[in-house]
Structures are given as structure tokens and as C-alpha cells.
Amino acid sequence: MRITIKGAGNVVSDMFTTELMRVPGFKLVERSRIKKILDEQDLSLSQLLAKKSAQEIGHLLGVDAVVMGNVADLACGTTCIPGIGGSNYSYSMRMVDAKTGIVLISTNVSGGAGGGDMDVTKRCQESVRAVVDKIILKMK
User: Fold this and answer.
1) Over its length of 140 residues, how does the chain's per-residue pLDDT go in tens digits?
2) Which domain holds residue 135?
3) Rounded to whole angstroms, how far apart are CA atoms 77 and 85?
4) Is 134 helix (H, G, I), strand (E, B) or coil?
5) SS3 at position 79
6) What contacts 24+ positions apart, CB below 8 Å, involve 122-128?
7) Sheet of 87-97: strands edge to edge?
């Protein structure tokens, strides 16, 4: 039996938000601001993503790039005790130029850890940092 880590999408999203702050020249738009803009347009984020391209999203939000992703898995084994059972994570992310629609970076990441949820969270964080390091190198 596996136990899914509650709020896994938010956990990984917050990891990316924190790590993207390290990218020189990046200014991030907080979710609360995005929600306010969407509320003003009478749209939900899921509606926006389903109906619009990254270019349209970027224009609406006034940003240069849009980072999107999906968390498929962030779970630990039955016991969630470090060293016992297996844990794993799986997510995808892409950053799209909001003016051209060109995908600047795209990745699918999956991995595991032998321990519980703290171990898998740490490994997931390390993978997020590695993805952001690639973004930083690409922007140089």
C-alpha cells in the first residue's frame, strides 16, 4: 500500500517558486495575484489552461514566460518510516516564452527514495533545484 503525500501539486509548485527566485532577472507573479486577475476576467486557472495558449496566458498576466507543470506522483511506502518501504515522485514542467510560444525548457522527472516522505521530499527538492540550475545555465 502507498500513501500519497497530501497537496503534492502544491508542494512541488512551492519548491519551483522558491528555486526560481534564484534565477537572475526573474520576477515571479504570485498565485494570489494570478487568481485576482483571473477572477476579474471571470476565468478559473483550469479554464484558462484548457482554452488558451501560453502566449495568451502570458499576455493576460503581463509576463514574459509561463511555467506550467503536472505532478503525477509524490508518495511514500506503507510505513513512511525512513529506511522502510519505497517512496517516489514524478512530475513534468515546461517554461514557454509568452511572446513566441516557444518552449524554453521542458522536462519530465521521476525518481525514488528508499525511505519515507521526508526522504522523497528531499530528493524531489534536489531534482527541482537541478531543473532550475539548467534554466539558469540556459539563460546565460
Assistant:
1) 444 555 667 778 888 889 999 888 888 887 777 778 777 777 766 666 665 567 777 777 788 888 888 877 665 554 444 444 566 777 888 888 888 888 888 988 877 766 555 567 787 888 899 999 988 888 77
2) 3-139
3) 5
4) helix
5) coil
6) 123/89, 124/11, 124/12, 124/15, 124/74, 124/89, 124/91, 125/15, 127/89, 128/12, 128/15, 128/16, 128/19
7) 3-4, 65-76, 87-97, 103-113
Distance CA 108, CA 131 (A): 10
CATH number at residue 41: 3.40.50.10610
In one-letter notation, the amino acid at residue 57 is: I
pTM, full prediction = 0.69
CB–CB of 45/67 below 8 Å?
no
Phi, psi angles (nearest 5°) of residue 69: -170, 180
Query: How many domains in the chain?
Result: 1
